[in-house]
């Protein structure tokens, strides 16, 4: 019972309930939701958004919104693919990833440097840099659609799991990129929960001045977050290209809002310090379900966005109300204006 | 071991030409409770920051336990056993009690990994030191302020603090919590911990301290044993002003009812009845959570009433919004002026005139800067806001002067009824005296005033009649001649 009481306090729990409910409704109306191919499809569609969700999550947790990850993904994966294509590189894909990660981190470092050094709001800085990156991508590099080099294409064709639905004959495959996502989540989870640096991310998001007084290296941690975000964005960008089997320069921008919505939905506090990776996954799952499966329930595609919008508002309202009730007890003592 | 644990000698510190400290000496004896008092801006916070190593002094030196330092880093201060408990407690509201307690020590040991068992052990050890019982797994933001403070204290003790500096520790506490804190302080003293306590609340200073040091304008005016000082001297040293004894007010007669509440209920209180007359100052008092604040909000339309009615000059008015309240001549000076009442980064002029812009605007609704300036400087002069330049942001003023700006704004509307919630919370003695005098003058001119306060001396100094609230109900009405310290204290209990 005590366990249940604690569950009730977490917004993740409510998102989980909505997911189950929505699943049951779609199943009742179509009979196609709880089928092996549909579930695998959802898992497949979640891969890239949930990788991006880590970026949005880490940024909110420590500092504030980061909206640059789609463009960092676009530009860094472009460079990695372009370079390996031109070199005729055909070795292990890890090298392509390393190149992408390197450039992603470079771009993340620029975000981090400006935000840490000049204490500018992260929203403005990342908006600015992502505009720069998009300008570089389309202007300086004149990026076009392009096919993947053979090594990436091969990696994209390898599947982790393939299922065929006996009744409908529809099939679905889970690509290898799923493992990359899972790996990133496990790694992030371990760092956040079992290292002092990880706890520092939470501490910093809770109260920056206190974190500094306690002895955390606030600047280093914050810079590190944006550096890592660059790397994760690059991985996300490469995974996206691998899964689409080609590089599509214009398909990246605009993805940030739905990812941020998913993260907030999953209980991450916009003002920092509170949130879990479990919440990120659940939030992403919910929004993926809506965009993938609502059509199964007979909701026309044109209404899909209305539903997504409603879920974002309702879901965020739940966590906002929770935040309000816990904020009532807390009272910030006024600072002396000396 | 010397008898003096900490002595600072000739410390000077200025910020861009402003002398915050002009050569200060303090000696703190081992094991005593030493109180540092002074008005806002007298340099109290600055000296604490010098002692804790946050600021480097321009001149002078600090001796801790016999070793002399000309300047210190925060780490050195902590290593020599000095711990500061800041007003914001330096806690992480989003994390568990355990982590809040354990972080400092774990980081100091340069551990890189998280060992939850060890965290818990450290935390248990910390709360044990002051016999503090709290759910160690609770998220700190869900705890009451007093518990947050105790977390900060037990964390300080973990670092083997010899001298604990508390910066206005009672500001956000209720009466009971203050009592508990004092017990803990007494306990610490018995264990040989020295306490430097910053406060400007008279009663606390007298109750708790062995020695008092009073600062004014960046100088140490006096250091003496608490037993040799009285209230009058204390006020004098603090403000440099002598105050007239407040004369006992003659019971006044009122005839014209301005505001009347009949069986008024809203979330937080119910069934409140009172009549407020022209020229009367009505006190509303009671402990935190008695419904006093809610009553003031409901009268001003910020809280929706659930039953009953309010009458203004005999006519029923449904005050369902702030706009309706203002239209009917009501004004409210809120409890937390910083978050509810002021635009801190904006200039004094703008803060004073903002509620009156409609009236000050010329034809076509255009507002001239000159009109605003005239209006504002009139008020700055009348009400005595201590500032050289009223184009400066309000946040450059001390607490008392900020409160005067809020007052000026509402007075410029010439309200019929002025409601003040905790008018002098966090305000120093001089400004408090000024505000009380101002309120009495306004009442004599015919304004009806409601003072919501739990400060007994304030209620006595200002109010003609008092209603006492408890648990959301009116439990007493004390009028005119019956109003004194005893009757009030009894009614509040």
Structure in words:
The complex is a heterodimer of chains A (338) and B (493). Chain A has 338 residues and is mainly alpha-helical. A two-stranded antiparallel sheet of chain A has the order 1-4. In chain A, strands 2-3 form a two-stranded antiparallel sheet. Chain A contains 14 helices and four strands. Chain A is globular. In chain B, 35% of the residues lie in helices and 25% in strands. Chain B contains 18 helices and 20 strands. In chain B, the strands form four sheets. Chain B has a six-stranded mixed β-sheet, with helices on both faces. Chain B has a six-stranded mixed β-sheet with strand order 16-17-18-13-19-20, sandwiched between helices. The model of chain B has no long low-confidence stretch (mean pLDDT 85).
Largest sheet of chain B: 6 strands, mixed
Q: Oligomeric state of the chains? A: heterodimer
| Order of adjacent strands in the largest pleated sheet of chain A | 1-4
CATH class of the largest domain in chain B: Alpha Beta
Low-confidence stretches of chain A: 327-338
Instruction: Give the mean pLDDT of chain A.
Output: 88
Q: Give the CA-CA distance, first to last residue of chain A.
A: 50 Å
Whole-angstrom Rg of chain A: 21 Å
Order of helices and strands of chain A: HHHHHHEHEEHHHHEHHH
What general form of chain B does the structure show?
Answer: globular
Count of domain modules of chain B: 2
Helical content class of chain B:
25-40%
Helix content class of chain A: over 70%
Second rung of CATH, namely the architecture of the largest domain in chain B: 3-Layer(aba) Sandwich
Q: Strands of the largest sheet of chain B, in order across it? A: 6-7-8-3-9-10
* Fraction in beta strands of chain B: 25-35%
